[in-house]
Amino acid sequence: MTAPQTIEELQIQAAELELPAFDPLIAWEIGCFIQKRALAENMPIAFEVARTAHPLFYFSMPGAMPDNAHWIRRKRNVVERFYRSSLMMKLLADREGRPFLERYILSPDDFVSSGGSVPIIVKGSGCIGSVTVSGLTQYDDHRLAAEAIRHVIG
Predict the structure, then answer these.
(1) Is residue 81 helix, strand or coil?
(2) What CA–CA distance (Å, rounded) separates 114 from 132?
(3) What local confidence, expressed as pLDDT, does residue 154 receive?
(4) Would 43 disulfide with which of 31, 38, 92, 99, CB 3.0-4.6 Å?
(5) Is the dihedral of CA 6, 107, 118, 135 positive or negative?
(6) pLDDT of 17-60, one tens digit each?
(7) What is the second-level CATH architecture of the domain 7-153?
(8) pLDDT-based confidence at residue 1 (cuts at 50, 70, 90)
(9) Domain residue ranges in the chain
(10) Are 57 and 51 in contact (CB under 8 A)?
(11) Mind listing the pLDDT tens digit for each residue in 71-88?
């Protein structure tokens, strides 16, 4: 895929990824987009589309590892706590020179400083869920999740 994203690029991207609505059928469309891309490019990933604390779509591609589910849960927890992408939170902590988990006094069992979870933002409602990918680099995990949201926006 491409080079790592900057904080400024992520801020612009976040503003562009606002959905007019979200429901289980939109979650299905997002999940199917990721599955088709992963299949076409032979990506050994697992991914999830969730309304806050409620997984709506989960899939594990051939080659994905059981540990990917643990990474997905911890990345999702970052979005649900901060309403920002897990990559944005990691880069902000890096810029401040303090490890993310230490900065916010978070347990590594429940949170991870790694990109790959992107908030589902609905106009007028705010952050109501997340799209999370695990199995590639943190930057490529993030990029794929963001592309899936962009796909349903049109």
Answers:
(1) helix
(2) 11
(3) 87
(4) 38
(5) positive
(6) 999 999 999 999 999 999 999 999 999 999 999 999 899 999 99
(7) 2-Layer Sandwich (3.30)
(8) very low
(9) 7-153
(10) no
(11) 999 999 999 999 999 999
State how far the alpha carbon of 130 is from the alpha carbons of 42, 78, 79, 90, 147, in Å.
23, 10, 7, 16, 13
Structure tokens at 138: 């943190």
56 touches 27 (CB < 8 A): yes
Report how far apart the first and last C-alpha atoms of the chain are (Å, whole number): 21
Neighbours of 86 (CB within 10 A): 32
Answer positive or negative: Cα dihedral of 133, 7, 88, 81: negative
* DSSP H helix total and E strand total for the chain: 6, 5
Residues 6+ apart with CB under 8 A from 52: 80, 127, 128, 129, 130
- pLDDT the model gives residue 129: 98
Query: Which residue's structure tokens are 């796909």?
Result: 151
Q: Are strands 18-19 and 46-51 parallel, antiparallel or unpaired?
A: unpaired
For the question of whether the overall pTM of this predicted structure is more than 0.90, the answer is yes
